[in-house]
Amino acid sequence: MPNVSHDTLHGFLPGRPKALNRALDLLDLGIPPGVTTETLPTDASGAPKMFARQMDSVLRVVRPDGRDPFILLVEAQTGIEPKKETSWPYYVAYLRDRYKLEVVLLVLCVDTATAAWAARPLHTGLGRPTQVTAPHVLGPANVPRVSRIQDASADLDFAAFCLWIHSNDPDIEGILTVMGEALAQDADREARDDLAGLIEDGLGSEHARKIWRNLMETLFTPRRGTIVGDARLAGQEEGREEGRVAGKAEQLLRLMERRGFSLTEETRQHVTTCTDMPLLDLWFDRAIDATTLDEVFAAPSSTNRVPAPAQNPEHTAVPGQGMTDPRPSAD
């Protein structure tokens, strides 16, 4: 089933002709550098549409001299799918008939087992095959593993593509570190932030994504004013705030335990589910001298050091429902 990493893998090359050219060079098709591309519809359902047939990415590729354009069908495979053994021959025949151009099927794979499966010729017919579909495959065996910062810096887009192909490599941390160091040197901060976000989207495992997030926080801060940068900065700030709130809640519980209060599970949840930092500060200050839990959790008043958060409906005290805690007081 398509997911973020799958969609990023097949959708990345179409908008980056230079990286696409380098990928095609790996197939030894004799295509000169400098191709241009046009994105084509991916719906192969035909008419009437009995059921949906959706290809991944379809491009019309034009050589620098304008001669011999061809159709490039890019399919991303993050695992073995036997149904593709009938889908791919159909897609090739459909595109050949629709555009009257030669069709190249390129399958991108992130592990060697899937790549070996995808590379098998698909035969249709009895005796002598009526149709043979032989996919071109790019996978860990024939895509370079970028291990030097200078190589990644020379073509960041192609390095990102190689990174995804090798995303299941045992040394994924080393690969990501090289990419992160190269990306941190890029002077175009907006392009850097966008590519950093795409790299995260294209990583299939949460383990690799966690490594990448830690590298981004260590190596550079995303630039404000971009969608990716603002979103990541907001996420980092939200994470830091959540950490501060959780830390204060833990301190409050420890203080009340040290003071000898009898804490029920309901009381603990009341504290740990509170996300209002000023309110937690208020409860903490009260717990230093309070003799009962009712004193700690009483509704804030105008004389409190921390103003009552009246603007927030979640924490607004309502008579009979408010912040007064109906828990037993300490003995």
Question: Brief overview, please?
Answer:
This protein has 331 residues and is α/β, with parallel strands linked by helices. 47% of the residues lie in helices and 11% in strands.
State the end-to-end CA separation: 59 Å
Mean pLDDT equals 82
Q: What's the story with the biggest beta sheet? A: 5 strands, mixed
Outline the low-pLDDT stretches: 306-331
**Helix content range of the residues, please?**
40-55%
Portion in beta strands: 5-15%
- Total number of strands: 7
Explain what the structure shows.
- There is one protein chain.
- By secondary structure, the protein is α/β, with parallel strands linked by helices.
- Helix content is 47%, strand content 11%.
- It has a five-stranded mixed β-sheet. The chain has a two-stranded antiparallel sheet with strand order 5-6.
- α3 (84-99) links the parallel β3 and β4.
- The N and C termini lie far apart (59 Å).
Essential attributes:
alpha/beta; 5-stranded mixed β-sheet; two-stranded antiparallel ribbon; elongated; disordered C terminus
